[in-house]
Amino acid sequence: QSALTQPASVSGSPGQSITISCTGTSSDIGGYNYVSWYQHLPGKVPKLLIYDVTDRPSGVSDRFSGSKSGNTASLTISGLQAEDEAHYYCSSFTTYTTPGVVFGGGTKLTVL
Amino acid sequence: EVQMLESGGGLGQPGGSLRVSCEASGFSFKTYAMAWVRQTPRKGLEWVSGISGSGGTTYYADSVKGRFTISRDNSKSTLHLQMNSLRAEDAAVYYCVKGLLGPNCGGDCYFDFWGQGILVTVSS
């Protein structure tokens, strides 16, 4: 499985919106609507934010939204808050070699 | 309350073996697929292996295929990962994770609960 490509870091000010991209191939993001996003806060375990490209698990704020176009998925965080500062990982089903799950390298979000 | 407690791990030698286990509670264990995800500072999160609710279907990342074996004991709500032929690059924090959507983790394989993680070190 080849890792998905995310920017190493993004930043934004409180109240702003930011978007994190996640680029794959037709063997993963482009071929299937099985994209998810995880938030990893310092000292915590990862938390599922988005699944099936756009769906949010119960309890996740609607400030988090997901989308996909071609081989690229995106996570948008609106109304940025200080507590959103974390690492964010995308993930997708993949058939690049054998069926499985592939993660992106992670994006560090800094709230200025 | 869903809880997952990993055990085992620790220090393994290159070429050696280790086993990590995860005891789950707070949900109907056999009803959900389970998986192992590992994390390193260099590579971030990496999916390692998954298993269906019945245990009849297993999946492996290319990096561990043929060396690692995932299994589960539904009577004890326990998940295992047997790691053989250890390599330096297997050193990581290993998380036991629960599938979100049910017993089969095919394309729609998402993880809604994570254990606290257990450290595996590989060194001679």
- Total strands of chain A: the figure is 9
Order of helices and strands of chain A: EEEEEEEEE
Unreliably modeled segments of chain A? none
Percentage of β-strand residues of chain B: over 45%
Main sheet attributes: strand count, strand direction, barrel closure of chain A: 6 strands, mixed
Give the tally of β-strands of chain B.
11
Total count of helical runs of at least 4 residues of chain A: 0
The sequence of SSEs of chain B as H and E is: EEEEEEEEEEE
Most extensive chain-chain interface: A-B, 27 and 27 residues
- Please outline the major beta sheet of chain B: 7 strands, mixed
C-alpha end-to-end distance of chain B: 40 Å
Quaternary structure type: heterodimer
> Please, how many helices of chain B?
0
* Distance between the amino and carboxyl termini of chain A: 35 Å
Give the helix level of chain B as a range of percent: under 10%
Radius of gyration of chain A: 13 Å
Low-pLDDT parts of chain B are: none
Structural class computed from helices and strand pairing of chain B: mainly beta
Average per-residue pLDDT of chain A, rounded, comes to: 95
- Please state the CA-atom Rg of chain B, rounded to the nearest Å: 13 Å
Question: Could you say which overall geometry of chain A the principal axes of the C-alpha atoms support?
Answer: globular
